[in-house]
Fold this sequence. Notes:
Layout: E1 24-28, E2 31-38, E3 51-58, E4 66-73, E5 81-88, E6 91-97, H1 98-101, E7 103-109, E8 117-121, E9 129-132, E10 138-143, E11 147-151, E12 165-166, E13 192-201, E14 204-211, E15 229-235, E16 243-250, E17 255-257, E18 263-265, E19 275-279, E20 282-289, E21 299-309, E22 315-322, E23 328-332, E24 346-347, E25 352-353, E26 359-361, E27 370-371, E28 382-383, E29 390-397, E30 405-411, E31 417-422, E32 428-434, E33 439-441, E34 449-457, E35 467-474
Parallel strand pairs: 24-29
Antiparallel strand pairs: 1-2, 2-3, 3-4, 5-6, 6-7, 7-8, 9-10, 10-11, 11-12, 13-14, 14-15, 15-16, 17-18, 19-20, 20-21, 21-22, 22-23, 25-35, 26-29, 27-28, 29-34, 30-33, 30-35, 31-32, 31-34
Amino acid sequence: MKKEITGANPYLPLWEHVPDGEPRVFRYNGEERVYVYGSHDTIVDEYCGLDYVVWSAPTDDLTDWRFDGVCYHSSNGEPLYAPDVVEKDGKYYMYVAEDRGSNIYVASSDSPTGPFADPVLTDLDFDPGILVDDDGRVYAYWGFCASFAAELNDDMATIKEGTLVKHMVPHTIPLDFVSDPDYDHIDSTYCFFEASSIRKVGGKYVFIYSQRINKEEPQNAFPAHSNSYLAYAYSDSPLSGWKYGGKISYNCGEIYTMPDGQKDRAYFHCNNHGSIVDVNGQWYVFYHRQTGTDQFARQGMLEPIDAVVDKNGDVHIGLVTYNSEGEPVSHAPAEMTSQGAFTDGIDVCGILSAGYACCIIPAENGERAYIKPVYEGYSSPVVNIKSGTVVGFKYMNFGDISPKSVTVKTEGFIKGRIKVCVGAPDGKCIASLAGGAQTAELNAKVTGKQALYFSFEAENKDEDICVFDTFTFDR
């Protein structure tokens, strides 16, 4: 019996839509697990939902996620935005973003899975991120288009007098509702937007946030006002002295070149929120992507990364390059993949939903296929596929012995041809399905870890070719 692959990227089931994940490692009842609390896109036609849920995985297997239940409900029927949870002195504190993030409460529990109760209004604002430092002092970070930070009192809710810092790092765009006569410089480096998160790496304070690019970046295939990147700054102090570090990850896929020579991204631009976490000595970045045609059905993603401090005290996070002596010298954003914690690639002989695609190149007529949001069942299909659409997966593990055939499950008759390629969208073609066939023999051997692409072709450029549901290979 073939196994349906789960725990890839997105790491939660495809029917679950939990963005804004702040991963936390907690030891509870003798077991160490990674916990994620999200704002839960369940309203469908706007951001977020009316409850927070908890998912967790053992630290030795980030492909094995468990639903730990609902931990908090909206108090007034208004959506809950991004939360954060920290532990201090054996108690767990959830920073709850009521009223679409305009009122931040702190609720508490004796368990990392909640329920979190007895909410108290705090002095904080939008997208709070909390740090319980090594000495027990607590710091908070928050803001929308302008960043703020402060030390908290022992009540975990109010700001300690004299510690509030305004515009901790420069923001990127002047908005009427964050205008400030003392701050009129518009930054093109830090570009703070929202999604404050705080961590420590090698003794350094690392401030992670969503970056909004003010100007178009054709070389990176970013339009103006894109906020797909997570970026970071770092310091020796929790409230001052920040230095820009760079970009950690993005959620809009690889760069590809269109027929007219222009560059574009192979996935949708979408807002972003996440953080980094050290799990048994391996760092990961958690972030989210969009599904559907809007930003109201987002899904949690993760990628393994490096997070190191060099001999000069600079922090490198992402895909780090080392010199011949093993010293970090540069870094680049982590690649967006389908594999997530399956670092050797996803087993091609399992059944994989098309919803794990990390690359969706538009059709010849300019239309883009997309992953259809689902709220039950296993698979999340790719729909609106027309001639020229490419759907890609990075990366698949073909093993040491080449498979003999590939089976593509579709909804509806295949009106055209599907080319199966490895390495690149126009890479080596290993199979072709046409005339409605859903199984084809491989015409070339393929082994090891490979990027896999399905290219769809038809004579009618405006007709739907099929709905792409799942695929598998057989030996």
